[in-house]
Amino acid sequence: MNKEKYLSALGTNIAVSVGLGAYISYVLANEHYTARQTIILEGSVINHTAFLNSGSARLYLQNEDNEEHTLLFYQENNFFSIEQGAKPYKDNDLYIEFLEDSEVCLIPDKHIENLYKLFPEYHQIQNGLNRNIKEILFLHQLNLSTLDAEKKYNQFLNQFPHISMVCEQKKIASFLGIDPKTLSRLRGKPKRK
User: Fold this and answer.
1) What gap in Å lies between CA 167 and CA 165, rounded to an integer?
2) Which of 11, 111, 129, 164 could share a disulfide with 27, CB 3.0–4.6 Å?
3) Given a cut of 60, is residue 154 above it in pLDDT?
4) Euclidean distance between CA atoms 170 and 167, whole angstroms
């Protein structure tokens, strides 16, 4: 487990105090997941402090017809920034699929209340992480609404170059809001210079 990597990522916008850093280093836990392992977010250990130390994952919703809708991809050095009880729809669960062997660092639930009580800067740090995930989701929604399929795919390749090599095409197509056949056509298209 790389505690320094976690603390460095946590302190990107707001400095982590020595006391907060020591507390987090003491309580930080490590979880390992294998390639293609899927977990239901609700009831899992994944919480808003979870950090993908290595590997990659996707967040998806499964509807009543067992159709999967990819909402977000995570790659190394990303915070999950999602609550365990998050449910966009009452009867649909959110799932996390680990696309390859992955390591997740997180602060166990029993210690989170202490972070807010003992370290005033943690509020600001968490607000910064929440702001980052909101910006990512807003930009993704904007791209879904305004870009054509080819531009969406090119942007995806720029943002997630590794994901395109470890994830099934239909899951990427779902994330991009395009038909898998369209994505197949785009992937087969020669690059123009």
Assistant:
1) 6
2) 111
3) yes
4) 9
